[in-house]
Backbone:
């Protein structure tokens, strides 16, 4: 098992290397020149002397491989550089933004797991019932609607309309920012923060929760027809016990796999969600850094996201092995 | 009304454990009702082995599942009578049925790899059976599970109990399945194609073990199979099914040596014979079993029957149609079916 984890960690390093190199090169394929932006900013024609100075200072006229090499050199030493825009250390920006994203993700994942899985399981067990039909329709819609559309629809329905109609305060949610931004035990919102949290969390969770619900439904239906479920019933177990003791764990396997795979999609969704709600997390900064051609921020934030993605996938695989004894054997023999 | 299926000559004088009269099971589908079992009657006595024989779709498994209510919710089960040791299973409550399942009537399924839960250790799955029905501690149940594995001839049972089904060989898995079934000493074992998924050499061992355990538990065995070779070796009585109906019921000798239904005869002729020198080709049954949604008129077997006559497509024969004085067969021309099938019975004697 240890050998397996070590091998996977090596893969993580390789993945990060390629992801960053690719992104680095991609950046220089973008229209717009970093030196011009730095010297003057958007929409103005800067003084060529200033542009030269900027190029010298940041090494922007060095050949690409040299720039890439020096970036890697600094990265290995833990130096992510400073933002072209604000001049702040990328590391300190990261430390500020990451907790916000993590909090939002925690809530989105909780919604995904609790709502998605239970809706899926209920529709499988109550197959063809009204609940099943309704949830199938809603989940199909949720997975089809783009995140940014959903974000604006939710903002309109739960923030704009209540505001216009003068509804009681309790029903009003906020569309932008983080409010008091105070938290208990890292992730429990206090003060008015929850009003700001609800809509982005629901938006971020929507696609994943819909997918989780559909997967849970499909795999539970499959498990319900499995031979071992009949065996369990033939033993004299109650239907409820058959479901809980024999069905659930088997049905959860594809869902666990999905949640891991889906993490990549959620990062994309997080960029959109955090932008739509001005949440100020990793996704928000990544979108901003692309728009402002802020290379150090873009690369630094991406490194963290890629790292998180790889580690979460590793975690999911370990969970998977814990869930399914058949996987455990393979991981054990593959030394 | 006399019911020849139910009253077919008993092989033993044992207590009548299960008696089923006019069982009708259908599945409600969008394409219409599928009559999977159509008026089946039989009895099982303590100590005997009753084999239920037929092709896929003949209703033999559905008959067994109907007894314990193990069919999916689309199934509708009706019967004039379904008595388990004198008690009507049709009128029994859910709680009572659950008691019967496993503790009094236990099932052994065809494919032990899919019939065992891949996520649970084998020992735990056996212990679960004991925990459901007996007031014992988990520890006690676990050690009983190891005992059971030992009883069915699994080497190193304590170590094996801690392993998962996928770590067992096919034969061992079926033994584990059997260990689970007998854990609460049931009165009736229903084995649904218990050897189909196994190698031939392992098949014989498993069958022998089933017979031995049946005697040790003083129970009865209802063996569902499509393999007449298996039937010949171990059963006392045979019930042949075709398209949801019984076509012939009798002692093993009667059905094999004095065959009275053309379908049974065709089945027997399609088997390789031990004394065959390789000169005669096997005789397959022409055609395919009918769709249960569109059963042929009259006798369901008439489109494939070598002895078919005009009446066969008009009237539906029942087990009385074969005439009195013989074992029951659902054929108007039972007397014309020759009994030239005897040499098949070479499996075990």
Residues:
């Amino acid at each position: 098992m240890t050998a397996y984890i070590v091998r996977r960690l090596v893969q993580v390093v390789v993945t990060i290397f390629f992801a960053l190199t690719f992104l680095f090169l991609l950046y220089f394929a973008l229209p717009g020149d970093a030196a011009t932006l730095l010297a003057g900013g958007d929409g103005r024609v800067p003084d060529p002397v200033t542009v030269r100075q900027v190029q010298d200072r940041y090494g922007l006229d060095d050949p690409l491989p040299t720039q890439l090499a020096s970036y890697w050199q600094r990265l290995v030493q833990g130096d992510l550089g400073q933002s072209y825009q604000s001049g702040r250390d990328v590391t300190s920006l990261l430390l500020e933004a990451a907790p916000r994203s993590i909090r939002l993700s925690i809530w989105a994942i909780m919604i995904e797991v609790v709502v998605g899985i239970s809706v899926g399981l209920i529709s499988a067990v109550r197959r063809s019932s009204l609940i099943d039909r309704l949830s199938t329709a809603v989940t199909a819609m949720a997975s089809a609607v783009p995140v940014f559309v959903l974000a604006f629809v939710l903002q309109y329905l739960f923030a704009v309309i209540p505001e216009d109609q003068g509804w009681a305060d309790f029903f009003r949610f906020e569309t932008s920012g983080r409010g008091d931004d105070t938290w208990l035990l890292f992730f429990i919102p206090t003060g008015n923060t929850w009003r700001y949290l609800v809509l982005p969390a629901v938006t971020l969770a929507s696609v994943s929760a819909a997918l989780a619900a559909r997967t849970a439904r499909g795999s539970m239906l499959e498990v319900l027809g499995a031979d071992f479920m009949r065996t369990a019933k033939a033993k004299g177990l109650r239907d409820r016990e058959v479901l809980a003791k024999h069905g659930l764990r088997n049905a959860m396997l594809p869902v666990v796999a999905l949640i891991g795979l889906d993490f990549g999609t959620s990062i994309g969704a997080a960029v959109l969600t955090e932008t739509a709600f001005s949440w100020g997390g990793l996704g928000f900064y990544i979108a901003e850094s692309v728009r402002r051609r802020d290379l150090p921020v873009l690369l630094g934030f991406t490194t963290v996201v890629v790292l998180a993605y790889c580690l979460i996938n590793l975690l999911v695989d370990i969970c998977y092995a814990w869930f399914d004894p058949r996987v455990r054997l393979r991981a054990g023999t593959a030394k | 009304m006399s019911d020849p299926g139910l009253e077919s000559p008993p092989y033993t004088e044992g207590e009548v454990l299960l008696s089923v009269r006019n069982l009708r099971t259908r599945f409600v589908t969008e394409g219409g009702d599928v009559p999977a079992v159509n008026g089946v009657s039989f009895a099982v006595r303590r100590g005997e082995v009753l084999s239920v024989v037929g092709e896929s779709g003949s209703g033999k498994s559905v008959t067994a599942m109907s007894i314990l209510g193990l069919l999916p919710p689309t199934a509708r089960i009706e019967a004039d009578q379904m008595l388990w040791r004198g008690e009507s299973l049709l009128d029994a409550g859910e709680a009572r049925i659950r008691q019967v399942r496993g503790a009094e009537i236990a099932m052994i399924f065809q494919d032990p790899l899919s019939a065992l839960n891949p996520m649970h250790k084998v020992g735990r799955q056996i212990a679960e059976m004991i925990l459901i029905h007996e007031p014992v501690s988990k520890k006690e149940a676990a050690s009983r599970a190891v005992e059971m594995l030992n009883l069915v001839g699994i080497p190193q049972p304590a170590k094996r109990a801690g392993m998962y089904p996928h770590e067992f060989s096919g034969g061992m898995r079926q033994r584990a399945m059997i260990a689970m079934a007998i854990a609460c000493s049931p009165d009736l074992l229903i084995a649904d194609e218990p050897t189909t998924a196994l190698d031939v050499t392992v098949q014989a061992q498993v069958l022998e073990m089933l017979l031995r355990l049946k005697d040790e538990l003083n129970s009865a065995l209802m063996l569902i199979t499509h393999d007449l070779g298996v039937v010949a070796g171990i059963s006392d009585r045979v019930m042949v099914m075709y398209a949801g109906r019984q076509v012939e019921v009798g002692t093993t000798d009667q059905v094999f040596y004095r065959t009275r239904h053309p379908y049974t005869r065709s089945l027997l002729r399609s088997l390789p014979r031990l004394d065959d020198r390789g000169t005669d080709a096997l005789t397959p049954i022409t055609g395919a079993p009918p769709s249960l949604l569109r059963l042929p008129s009259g006798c369901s077997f008439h489109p494939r029957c070598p002895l078919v006559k005009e009446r066969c497509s008009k009237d539906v024969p029942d087990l009385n149609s074969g005439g009195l004085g013989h074992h029951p067969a659902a054929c108007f021309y039972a007397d014309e079916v020759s009994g030239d099938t005897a040499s098949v019975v070479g499996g075990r004697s």
The interface with chain A takes residues 68, 70, 72, 98-103, 106-107, 109, 111, 114-120, 128-129, 132-133, 164, 166-167, 177, 180 of chain B (CB under 8 Å). The two ends of chain B are 37 Å apart (CA to CA).
